[in-house]
Structures are given as C-alpha cells and as structure tokens.
Design goal:
The protein has 312 residues and is of the alpha/beta class. 38% of the residues lie in helices and 15% in strands. The strands form two sheets. Strands 3-10-9-8-7-6-5-4 form an eight-stranded parallel β-sheet, with helices on one face. The chain has a two-stranded antiparallel ribbon with strand order 1-2. β5, α3 and β6 form a beta-alpha-beta unit. The chain is globular and about 55 Å long.
Length: 312
Amino acid sequence: MKYRKMGNTGVNVSEISLGSWLTYGNSVDTGSSEDIIDTAYNSGINFFDTANVYALGEAEKVVGKALKKYNRDSFVLATKVYFPMGDGVNDKGLSRKHITEQLHHSLKRLQMDYVDVLYCHRYDEETPLYETLRAIDDLIRQGKVLYAGISAWTPDQIEAAIKIADEKLLDRIIIHQPCYNMLQRAIEKEIIPTCKKYNIMQAVYCPLAQGFLTGKYLNGIPDDSRAANVKTNGFISDYTNDEIYEKTKRIKEIADGLGVPMSQLALAWILREKNIASAIIGASKPSQVKENVKASGYEIPADAMSELEKII
C-alpha cells in the first residue's frame, strides 16, 4: 500500500480507503463487516470513512467496534454531519447546535475520544457559513476533531470557506469528498483546480461507479444483487443506460488485455490524479478488499491510458 498526504498536513492516508455507506448496518451483517475491516487494516488501509447518517448511526457502531482493537494512532477515521438524524427542526444541517450534538453522538457510537476528520456532508444554505466553520474550529481546539473536511461543495462555496477561515484565523478545510470515477469526471473542470489552489486534497467516493466498473453489471443488474435494492436511487440510475454499458464493456476489454481486474484498473486510473489522496471503496466481502488494494502503486501503461481516454 502506498500513502499520500491528506491536504496540507503531515498526515499520511492510504491510497485506498474503506467506506461504510450501504454496507455496515445495512446489507452486510456485523460479523462479516468486522472481517472486512480487519482485512482492510491488515492490507495496509489506514483510512476509514463513515457518517452519522449511514444506517442512522449503525454504521458508526460497527466501524468503531471493529477498529477498537487497534492502536488509535494507527488509523485515520472520518465521519460526517449534515443530513437529518431525527424529525426535530434542529436535527439536520450545519448549525453549531447540530454539529456539536451530532459529533458527540458519533464519538459515543464510535467509542472514540476524537475523529481525525469531520466532514460537512453537504453545504447548508440555511446556516451562516461562519457559524459552521467556527463550530468545527471550536471542536478542533477541544481536540475532538483534528481536521475539517467537506463533501460535494461547489468551487464558490469552497472559496468562501477559505476566505472566512483566513479572515477569522480558523482552521482551513484540508480535504474534500466528491464523487469521481471513469464515468463521472465533473470535478476535473473546476473542483480539482480550485482545491489545488488551496492545498485541499480529494478523498473520492463511488470510485467503482456503484459496481459498474467491476464488470459485474455488464449485462444489467441481477435481481439478487445488492445493487438491485437501491437501483431506483439517483446513484445507480446515473449508470443504467446503454452508453454506460457500452463503455464498461470496452473498459473491461482493456483490463483483460492487461491481465488485471477491471476494478483495479478503474482505481489505478483515479490515482493517476495527484490531487486525490484516496479512493474510498465499499466492500461486502474480504476478497473485494484484497483485490482492490492492488490498485495502489499500479501504473497503467501509456498506450492503455490513451485507449481509456478515447472511451471515457
């Protein structure tokens, strides 16, 4: 496993990280989840990602229980806040109240004294940005959060956050979590250039396009697959069209020609971008982790890279 700096910090995170969306506390039982996390840890993954909203806290419990056996200084743990965690009028968003309360709930579920990264899971249009940034800065000064992160923010929102942080002497955002893969490249146009300007790195989710870049959906989504349970959501439906199916078949041909799994090729393609600190994989089996970690350090030949660019 190779490691990269997390933004303008001294912290190293594994190029492949393990997430917990749609898996732990949902489709994967607790025992299997712990086996997967153990496999990831023993494969060199030191960056683990979760969120309070994943299975409404259950994912955090699973991740915390599995990581509890390891030295706290041996891994980097991230969670998130923003989405509704209840029916109350203040049970959502990025107000000081919601951020503070949810961080404490997360720490209790994780059985941790602190998290390395607290992400603003989305941008909150209803809360002053300064209130949000000040609340996170306060948690950093208390030692309950080490670094500030954001997810799926626009370039303008990132610029505004940096301006406020610099004016008010707050800790800057150091990492951004967007969707990025061979089939969804929107961040290349503005997000990556903006983040490079401020030494903000990316930890990307959906690097395998919800499984489409593993080759298992070349002929459609089987009724008995995990994806079948969520194929009506916006994430899966982004990929269920003839153009995507044709592209994935051609990508699979290149992977076969190189003698590597399609998923390894797709992850290595992401890691070609130096602004990306880590690609966050999901896994329902330990074998998937073992296969995906091989992408770290794999160099795609120039001719294959050229062919991939033509396809995607």
